[in-house]
Amino acid sequence: PDAHRVLRWRRDRSAGRARTRPLFRRNYAYNDHRDARRSAEERGSESGAEESLDAHEDAAARGARLASLLSGLRRTALGDNDEGLEDLLRSVNAVESASQSTNTAAAVSSSSAGAAVLRSGKATLVRPGRSVEGELVLWRHAIRHSEPVESGGKVRSWPLHLLVELHVRRYLLQHTALELMFADGESAFFVLESRKAMYKLYKRIIALQPPRLRYYSERHKELRLAAATAFWQQRLISNFEYLMELNTLAGRSPNDLAQYPVLPWVLSNYEAERLDLDDPANYRDLSKPVGALNEERLELIQQRYEEFEDPENVVPKFTTDRITPPKALFCTICCESSLSRLWR
Length: 344
Fold this sequence. Notes:
Layout: E1 9-11, E2 24-26, H1 40-56, H2 59-79, H3 82-112, E3 119-127, E4 130-138, E5 142-146, E6 155-159, E7 163-171, E8 174-182, E9 187-192, H4 195-207, H5 218-233, H6 239-249, H7 295-307, H8 325-342
Helix pairs in contact: 2-3, 5-6
């Protein structure tokens, strides 16, 4: 390939061990957002036109196109044409991903066709930075979330035979959410209309007895916590994996920015090129909170504490520094930018 060509990467959507996304894939659809000033109507009309064309494209035509691309790929590989090889790989990747999504949707639809609807109702699909309202439908072999037509009409389906974990979650301080985790690394965070509706769906999914479901109750939570602690003490899992397990069991999820996983601040040396983990000077003083490590900041906080007084006794002197969606989004953007630079 050309030495001056810039390669773009993106993180894979599926989560690996400890709910991380360790895989990087080539980003053939990179966008520098130079056309961000265009109106939302123009973008919506263009995307709608593209989606309508994709929707009417025949699966047989996709297969024929993929076959022709693969034959061209073989010829190009024999001819040692690197630029042509990359172009063909890019086309094969696009067609193959479209075919896989079509086949997955067709498989779920065929398995659900003619099957009785076990539960249905309004639900919001929560993802980082976005909440999508729609209708949730549960069949025996799959669960589906459909957006309204005016919002794009996108349909997402998850097969229940891949379901491995089922968690009751809070959303906006209310126990109305369920989080489903699947064996392929996907996860879905649903917010139901009420707590009653959430528990009905929860019990209905458990009654279906998905073959891979291994965690869904408080008793499992206690056993899982004890097992994770034992594995960590025996050095069978890393500190990060243990902390992510604690976050998951505590109800935190990467899907909800208001309950994003948190990790303790342990190190104090961020300037040395090589870090000696056996040197106590490289660790912060764990006997004090983070806000009290800096003496100047500690004096300022004490001064504010002494001077502040609410006449109505409504606002407390100290407020908790909880994680908020803007903070979580800012940190994830910084991490994404740092990781992208490593791959350039």
